[in-house]
Amino acid sequence: MAERGCPLEAVPLPAEVRESLAELELELSEGDITQKGYEKKKAKLLARCVPLIQGVDPSLQVENRILGPAEASAPAPKQPKPRPSNARDERFRSDVHTEAVQAALAKYKERKMPMPSKRRSVLTHASVEAYTPPDLHSAPPDVTTGLVQHQHAYCERPQMTSVRGVPRGCRGSVLETAGGVPVNSRVSSKIQQLLNTLKRPKRPPLKEFFVDDFEELLEVQQPDPNQPKPEGSQMAVLRGEPLAESSWPPSLLAALQQWGTAQPKAPCLTALDTAGKAVYTLTYGKLWSRSLKLAYTLLNKLTNKNEPLLKPGDRVALVFPNSDPVMFMVAFYGCLLAELVPVPIEVPLTRKDAGSQQVGFLLGSCGISLALTTDACQKGLPKAQTGEVVTFKGWPPLTWLVIDGKHLTKPPKDWHPALQDAGPRTAYIEYKTSKEGSTVGVAVSHASLLAQCQSLTQACGYSEAETLTNVLDFKRDAGLWHGVLTSILNRIHVVSIPYALMKANPLSWIQKVCVYKAQAALVKSRDMHWSLLAQRGQRDVSLSSLRLLIVADGANPWSISSCDAFLNVFQARGLRPEVICPCASSPEALTVAIRRPPDLGGPPPRRAVLSMSGLSHGVIRMDAEEKLSVLTVQDVGQVMPGANVCVVKVEGTPHLCKTDEVGEICVDSSATATAYYGLLGITKNVFETVPVTAGGAPVSDRPFTRTGLLGFIGPDDLVFVVGKLDGLMVVGFRRHNADDVVATALAVEPMKFVYRGRIAVFSVTVLHDDRIVLVAEQRPDASEEDSFQWMSRVLQAIDSIHQVGVYCLALVPANTLPKAPLGGIHVSETKQRFLEGMLHPCNVLMCPHTCVTNLPKPRQKQPEVGPASMIVGNLVAGKRIAQASGRELSHLEDSDQARKFLFLPDVLQWRAHTTPEHPLFLLLNAKGTVTSTATCVQLHKKAERVAAALMEKARLSAGAHVALVYPPGVDLIAAFYGCLYCGCVPVTVRPPHPQNLATTLPTVKMIVEVSKSACVLTTQAIMRLLRSKEAAATVDARTWPTILDTDDIPKKKVASIFRPPSPDVLAYLDFSVSTTGILAGVKMSHAATSALCRSIKLQCELYPSRQIAICLDPYCGLGFALWCLCSVYSGHQSVLVPPPELETNVSLWLWAVSQYKARVTFCSYSVMEMCARGLGAQTAALRMKGVNLSCVRTCMVVAEERPRIALTQSFSKLFRDLGLPARAVSTTFGCRVNVAICLQGTAGPDPTTVYVDMRALRHDRVRLVERGSPHSLPLTESGKILPGVKVIIAHTETRGPLGDSHLGEIWVSSPHNATGYYTVYGEEGLHADHFSARLSFGDTQTVWARTGFLGFLRRTELTDASGERHDALYVVGSLDETLELRGMRYHPIDIETSVIRAHRSIAECAVFTWTNLLVVVVELDGLEQDALDLVALVTNVVLEEHHLVVGVVVIVDPGVIPINSRGEKQRMHLRDGFLADQLDPIYVAYNM
Length: 1488
What we know:
It contains 42 helices and 59 strands. The model is unreliable at about 1-10, about 50-90, about 125-185 and about 200-215 (pLDDT under 50).
C-alpha cells in the first residue's frame, strides 16, 4: 500500500484481516473479481484497523493517489504488506535464490540503456509522473514535407517533394539535416545511448572464423574447451524391488465388483462444496450399481439408424468440472465396464479457450463422437441459437449425453458386463500438452493400469479402508492414479478437495485431514505454500494422523523450499518429517519414483546443491564455489517396485549417461503407458527406446519408456530430477531450464512488479538457435520507468546467474496471459501468441545484439583486384563482358527526315502546315468527358500567343529560363512550345497543393530559384494561390519573379519563330527530386530531345494513325517526354489522363484505354496500385460497363527503380478478366542522366524474369537459381534497350568493365543522354563524373553517363528483331540507397519486403541506417495496442532472412512514410524526420 503513495503510519494487521486480504488477492489473481472491486473490498477491510488520519476518510487513503510535490518528496513510511509473498508463483520460492539474485545485481553498475519512447495514447498503464512532456523549444520547426498526414487530393499518402540540397537563399524554410542531426534532438541522444550500450564488450566473445566470400556461413559455435565434462563411470541400470506376489484381484473392475457387492456401505468418495461442506459421499455399492447402469445405457440404449452407437473399444470423452468427482468416477468406471475407452478432458468455457483447438485435434484423432457430462455442466456450456451446445473451434461434431441418474436405464437382472482380465487393450487415454502446444493422447492399457495400482499400493504402503485427502485434479496424473484408481484396489475413502475451495480457503485440505483423520494426503507444493500463508491463528489443527504426504510435483526443483517451510511450521502441529514424500511422474511413464517412509524401508532423504553452470553443460558438480548460481534439489525417492530405470543422453542415440551426467530418465516397467494414441512415429521414439552402453550394446532386451524428466541417480540409489525436457532451452551448447529462469526473474523485486508472479519463459528458434523469451504480467499500477528498470534488472540477473542472454522480454497487462485449466499460465499458447503477434504487450525489450552470437562474420573486402585482371579472369572463366545495345539508328531512317526533325518547334510548324486539323491531344476529366483538345494548328497558334506574351509583357530575350507552373493539361504543352518559339528555356514545375501549401510551396519556390527562372507562367487560379495570404505565411510573395497568367492572353502572332543556332543549344531543363531527397535539374539539348523522341517512336511504332493513353505526371523524366514531346514528333494522338482525376474515379484510366482502343498505354506504379486496390473486386462491374482491355498490346509502367514484380503480376491477373493480355504489362527504366534507357515497345521478345540468389547479390555477385529455391529473389527485365542506346556494367570503384555474373553500375551512352546537371552551384566535378565517365580499361574512348543504378546484363535464349540473341538488362536498385552493413551491400526493398510479410498489420515499411544501426520504420494498420507485437516479429524476420540485427524499430501511423509522385519511398526524408523527432511515432523500440 505504501507503494501506492499513501502516507499511512505502519500498523500491524490482525490475523483475520491478513487472511481476508490473502483471499482477496487470490480472487483478483484468478479474475474472479475486478481490480475496482478488489480496491473497494480491500479499502473496507483496512478501514476497520487503520485509524483515521487527520480526519481523512479511510476509503480515500487506499486509493491510488497522485502525490503533490510536497508529498512526493517526503518518503512515505512503509506499511508491512499483508501476505508477503502472494505476488509470486509458489513453485519458485527460494529465499536463498532471492539473496543470490540481489547479490548478482549489486555487482552490476546501473547500465544506462535508452528507454523506449511511447506515444501518450499508448501509455495506458503509465502514471502521470512517468510522462515527460516533449521539449518544445529544442525541436526544429516541422517542415519536412508530408511527415504529418495532410488531406491530399492525389495519392493516399503525403507526397514528398521537399528537398535536401538547399540553395543558400532558402535556409529558413527547409530543415537541413542531410549531413547531420540537430544536436538537441531527443531521438539522436537515445541512439547515442544505445550505441554506448552496444560498445560494451559482450560476455561471449565472438570467435574469429573464416567465411568463404560467397556462401555466408553462420558461425558454427565450437564448444568451449574448458567447459566441465562428465568424469564418472558409466551408470548401471537401476532395478526396483520386485513387485510383491500377494493375492491381487485379476483386474481393477474385479476389485470394484468385490467391494461393491461385499462392502456396499463402505465410503468410496466424499465430494465437498466451495464452502468445505461434504455434499455427497459415494459408497462402493452406489459406485458399482451406478457404473453398471451407465454401462448398460451406453451399450444398449444409444442407437444410430438402429445400429448401436458404440462398439467395444470406442473412445468416449468425459467432460466433468473439477468440483464433481462423483459423477466423473461413475462415468470412468461405467465406460470401463462397457469396454469403452474414457478420454477425460477439461470443461470448455468459451469457444476460444487456450489450447481448445488442440483438444479438438485429440478428440478427432481418437474418433470421438460422444461426450459424457452432468446436467449442471451441460447447462453451463456455451450454446448455439438452436439451444444445442456449440461446436468448439477445431472440435469434431459431438453428441452430448447427460449421465445423471434419471437419464440412465436400470439393467435387467440377468445382464452382467464382461469382466475380462487385465490385458493389453487400452483402458483409458490421458491428454498431454507438449512443449509446442500440440495435445496428444497417452494410451494406458488395462494391464498397465493394474500394475500401476499394485506398485503404488506397495510403494505407498496403502492398506484397506484408509482415508486419502486429494487436492489434485482427479482427471489425470497423480490425482487420477491415487484418487480414482489405486483407491478402488484398496477400498480407500478419498476426500476430494475442489480447486475453488482451495482458492477460497487454502487451509481446507489440512482441516479435512484433521477432521477425517486421513492417513494420506496428495498435494502440490503450491498447496503447501498457500496453506502456510493462511495458517496463522489456526491453533486446533493437527497433522499427526498423516503417515504419507505425497508431493506430486516434488520433481520440480523449486518445490524443496515449500516442503521445508511447511515442515517448519507444521512440525509443531504433529507433522513428522519422514511423512513428506516427493514423487516424480510423467504422463508416459506414470509414477517414476516416490520417496518411501522409513517404516517402508526408505533410506533417509537427501538433497544436492548443484552448480547451475555445471548443469547447463549437463554435468553434476556439487562443489559450488560460485554461491550465487546454485540449484538445491531434493530426492524424489526410489524407483517404483517392479521397474528398471536408467538415464540416457538427451540428444542422438540413447547412450547411458555417466554417473555425474544429467540425462533423460527412462523406465522399463509393466506399469507405464503404451503409446500416443494413433501416432505411431513418435510412439516408437518415446515408448520403445533401447538404451545402449558406450560400446553400443543394448542394456536390456525390453524397450524403455522415456519420461521427459531430466535428472540423475544419486547416493542410496535415490532419483534426483533437475528439470523437464519440455522446459529445456538449448542456447549455444548450454541447457537452461525454463523454471530456473522464472525463479531468477521472480527474485528481482517480486513484490513490486510482477502481477501475482505470472511469468512464462520459453524459447523460440531464430537463426538456428534457441532464443529465450520471458513474458510477465505487470501490476496495473506500474509506471513506465518501473517496467523498464525491472526489465533491465531481470536481464542482468539472468545474465549473471545463468550466463545466458534473454532475447526478448515482454510485459503484458495484468490478467491477459492465457491460463491453464487449473491456474498457472498456458505456456505453449503464450508462445503461439508471441509468434503470431497476438500477445499485445505493453512493454517490450529486445536484446538481439547481445544474444545473437552466431551471425556470419562481416565480409572482409578483398584487396582491390585491378580492372585488367578482372577482364582476364572473366575471359578465363568463359564469362562475357557485360555490354549490350539497342538497334542501330543510322540504318533505320532516311537521314533527310532526321535532319528535318532536328528541332521540335520546326516539327510543330510543319505539322500545323501539312495536317492542320489532325488531333494531337485529348484531355479527359474524372467523368471521362473530353475537357480540351488540341489539333496541330490549335497548338501552334496557342504557342505563338504565349511566345508573344513572353517577348512583350515579360520582355524576355532568347535563352531566358521560364518556370511553367500548370496542372496536367494542354495549357502546359502550349506554354512549353511557346517558350521554344521565342527561344526561352522552359522548366516544368508541379503546382503547389492548395490544402498543403506549407510543405509543397517551398519546393516550387526552390525550383524557380535554383533554375534561375526570370518568369513564371501559370493559370489565374494558381497565380491567385501564389499571392494568397496562406502562401505568404510560407514564402515571401515579394521574392517571386514576374508571374504571367496565360488564361486570356491576346491573339497575337510572333514576327519570327526563334531557330536555335546549333542542335546543342539548351532546349529545356528537367527538374526532379531523387529518392535520396536531392533536387537535380538536368539540361536537355535540342539534339537530345529529338533523339529521345525518335528512339521512342521507333520502339513503340508510333505513327499519326495511332492512339496512345497516358496516365502520368507531366513534370519530369519520361512522363514529361511522353506528355509534351512525343505526339508532336511522331504525330500520334495522345489521350491524356491526369493522375489526380483517379482520386474521384479510379476506373478512369482503364475506361479511357478501352474507349479509345489504345494499343499502347503508359502509367506509373502509383496509378497501377490505385487500380489494383480500388478495382480488384469490381472487374465484373467494369465488364458490365463495357470496359475491354483486349486492345492493349503493351502497358508500360514508367519508373526509375527495380521493377515491382508482385504489383505488375497481380495487376495482370486481376484484369485478365477484362481481356488484358497476359504479357502486356512491362516496365521502363530511365534515370536523371538518361530519361529513357529501356522501354518494352510493341515488337521484340517478351520481358524475361530470372531468380537470383539474394545472398550472392549482397556480395555484388549474380548467381541464377531455380524458382522457389531458398533466398531466391525474382527480378524482371526493365523493357528492351532503346534504339541507339548502349549499356555497359562497370565496377563501382575501379570503373573497369564487369562480366555478366557481376552486379555493377549501369553506364549508358546514347544520343539522348542529358548534357549535364544544371545546378545553382555548378558543381563541375559532379557533372564530369556523372555525364562523361570513361572506363579505366578496355574501351577507354567511349564517353558514358553513370546512371547511379546497380544492375546486370544477361544474354537470353530469345532472339530480337535483327535475329541476334537478346540481351536483357535487370535493374537491382539505386546505388545511393544501398545499405553497407557487415561489409555487404543490402537493398532496402529486400529487407522491407521481408518485414511487410511478418505481420498482417504492417501496411508499409521503410529502412535506413544511422551510425551503422539499422532502423526499421513500419506503418501499423491496426489498433495502437497491437503496436508492440510487431517489434519482435520485425527483429526475427530481418535476422532470419538477412542476418542483420535491427537497431531501432519505429512504429508509426499509416501514411507517415513519405513517397514521391512516382510512388517511390523517400527514405532519406524519413530518416531526417525521425532524427528531428517529427514522426510522432506510436512506439520506438531500441534493441539492445
